[in-house]
């Protein structure tokens, strides 16, 4: 399944009276990798979680494939969108293969088809299904677990991927190869990807476009080139120069 | 007559009482599990239940066992002399450790795992059965183990209200100032407690090993 468009229209969200997102609008085109870049607490993770309704907006609209997310059953919506997070969140009591095929299992695929899919997905992220498929997550390295997290997000062939610092817990070298492989993979699959990171290098390496998020709003949206050539304001300049 | 000869002469009685003892522990622990595990899981879904339910179980736990048996005897329907009163008291005692370990077991599941489970589109029931209960199982099991071991001890006291079991030998030994009778009850019940603890500890270790480390 190819990517789907995701849009935010004047989205506002507060937690305990604290305004986290203030009338944010953003369009993610089908098949593009859009990176939400910003410091911790800027609202980027909340923006991501609005898409699969782990958070509901106070005002404004979030659209997936042109349809307001509020009109979806949250469970059905989430099963159609891949989700990968920093802690990975693999289930320690299930094998790697069973972890990869959790969403297909929720969708009622038969075991035979799930096994095939798990092998296919593990190969896709550079793991050997025969060597790794039957292991427990705690028998894998940190980088391998992150790969399993990506494989799991892709397993049900979702229309979009939501990724919240999915390579956050890996050493710099492992991280770089994960990023490069993920970039190639996302181009090949043509999924719409919304990717949250605070790491400027990661954002520039992965993104088709970057949205710089600060203080509950979007400061600038553009290709990595546009942003490095013409930062919209001092904050954006500070953020990208801080990384150089 | 040596102690061993004494035992040899009474082995069938001792065996019978040991069996009775085990049956009382098993009945009350199983009943405790059947009540406390669902109740504990309900508390994780309806937090308002937590305070009153755990509070009640905690109060029961602080009442001395002999006093609790005494308090139950005059109650109509559930009271009276015999094993029924004892089983009710034993079930009440089993509740707290199992409840507490069920609730903590579920609450200590890694938030990243729960977030992933929700984000993948699990219903609340699926999250409970596929994620939370399996991950809480070692903790729940150790609550059951505590309840069982405590139960073995409490059943000896329950003999005071006519429940039977090895405690009746101990009480008879005390009344007749016969240390052989006393030991004939005390030693098997101590062995029983050690066996229950060791056996359940082994099961627990296998459970943990077969499910991977709960935190990773």
How far apart the termini of chain B lie comes to 60 Å
Overall outline of chain B: elongated
**What is the assigned CATH homologous superfamily of chain B?**
MetI-like
The structure class of chain B reads: mainly alpha
Low-confidence stretches of chain A: none
Number of contiguous helices of chain A: 11
Major sheet characteristics of chain B: none
Order of helices and strands of chain A: EEEHEEHEHHHHHEHEHEEHH
Oligomer: heterodimer
CA-atom Rg of chain B in angstroms: 20 Å
**Got a strand count of chain B?**
0
CATH structural fold name of chain B = MetI-like fold
Number of helices of chain B: 8
Q: Assign a percent range to the helix content of chain A.
A: 25-40%
Overall pLDDT metric of chain A = 90
CATH arch. level architecture of chain B:
Orthogonal Bundle
Name the CATH class of chain B. Answer: Mainly Alpha
Characterization of the model:
- The complex is a heterodimer of chains A (244) and B (216).
- Chain A is 39% helix and 25% strand.
- Chain A has helices at 44-51, 74-79, 96-100, 102-106, 111-124, 129-132, 142-154, 172-189, 200-206, 224-229, 234-243; strands at 6-15, 18-28, 33-37, 59-64, 67-68, 81-85, 160-164, 192-197, 209-214, 217-222.
- The longest helix of chain A has 18 residues, at 172-189.
- Chain A has a 6-stranded mixed β-sheet with strand order 6-7-8-3-9-10, with helices on both faces. A 4-stranded antiparallel β-sheet of chain A has the order 2-1-4-5, covered by helices on one side.
- Chain A has 244 residues and is α/β, with parallel strands linked by helices.
- The model of chain A has no long low-confidence stretch (mean pLDDT 90).
- Chain A is globular.
- Chain A folds into 2 domains: 6-80 and 158-243, 3-Layer(aba) Sandwich (Rossmann fold), CATH 3.40.50.300; 93-157, no CATH class.
- Chain B has one domain: MetI-like (MetI-like fold, Orthogonal Bundle).
- The mean pLDDT of chain B is 89.
- Chain B contains 8 helices and no strands.
- In chain B, 81% of the residues lie in helices and 0% in strands.
- Chain B is an all-alpha fold and 216 residues long.
- Chain B starts with a helix and ends in a 5-residue tail after the last helix.
- The radius of gyration of chain B is 20 Å and the shape is elongated.
- At the A-B interface, α2 and α4 of A face α5 and α6 of B.
């Amino acid at each position: 399944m190819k990517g789907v468009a995701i849009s935010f229209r004047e989205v506002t969200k507060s937690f305990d009276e604290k305004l986290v997102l203030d009338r944010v609008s953003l369009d993610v085109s089908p098949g593009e990798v859009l990176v939400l870049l910003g410091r911790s607490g800027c609202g980027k993770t909340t923006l991501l979680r609005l898409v699969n309704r782990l958070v509901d907006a106070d005002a404004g609209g979030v659209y997936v494939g042109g349809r307001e997310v509020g009109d979806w059953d949250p469970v059905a919506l989430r099963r159609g969108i891949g989700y990968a997070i920093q802690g990975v969140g693999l289930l320690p009591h299930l094998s790697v293969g069973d972890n990869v095929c959790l969403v297909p299992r929720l969708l009622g695929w038969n075991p035979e088809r799930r096994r095939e899919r798990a092998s296919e997905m593990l190969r896709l992220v550079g793991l050997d299904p025969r060597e790794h498929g039957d292991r427990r997550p705690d028998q894998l390295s940190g980088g391998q677990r992150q790969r399993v997290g990506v494989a799991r997000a892709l397993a049900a062939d979702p229309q979009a991927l939501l990724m919240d610092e999915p390579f956050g817990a890996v050493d710099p070298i492992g991280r770089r190869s994960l990023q490069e492989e993920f970039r190639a993979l996302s181009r090949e699959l043509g999924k719409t990807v919304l990717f949250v990171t605070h790491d400027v290098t990661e954002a520039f390496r992965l993104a088709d476009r970057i949205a710089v998020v600060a203080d509950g709003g979007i400061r600038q949206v553009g290709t990595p080139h546009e942003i490095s050539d013409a930062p919209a304001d001092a904050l954006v300049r500070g953020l990208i120069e801080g990384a150089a | 007559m040596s102690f061993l000869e004494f035992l040899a002469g009474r082995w069938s009685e001792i065996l019978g009482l040991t069996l009775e003892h085990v049956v009382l522990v098993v009945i009350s622990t199983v009943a405790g599990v059947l009540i406390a595990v669902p109740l504990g899981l309900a508390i994780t879904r309806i937090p308002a239940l937590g305070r009153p339910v755990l509070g009640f179980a905690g109060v029961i736990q602080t009442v001395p066992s002999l006093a609790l048996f005494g308090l139950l005897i005059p109650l109509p329907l559930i009271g009276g002399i015999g094993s029924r009163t004892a089983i009710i008291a034993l079930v009440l005692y089993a509740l707290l450790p199992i409840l507490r370990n069920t609730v903590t077991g579920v609450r200590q599941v890694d938030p990243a795992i729960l977030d992933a489970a929700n984000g993948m589109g699990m219903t609340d029931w699926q999250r409970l059965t596929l994620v939370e209960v399996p991950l809480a199982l070692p903790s729940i099991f150790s609550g059951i183990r505590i309840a069982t071991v405590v139960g073995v001890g409490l059943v000896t006291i329950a003999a005071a209200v006519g429940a039977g079991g090895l405690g009746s030998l101990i009480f008879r030994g005390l009344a007749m100032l016969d240390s052989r009778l006393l030991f004939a009850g005390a030693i098997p019940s101590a062995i029983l407690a050690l066996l229950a603890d060791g056996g359940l500890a082994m099961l627990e270790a296998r459970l943990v090993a077969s499910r991977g480390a709960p935190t990773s």
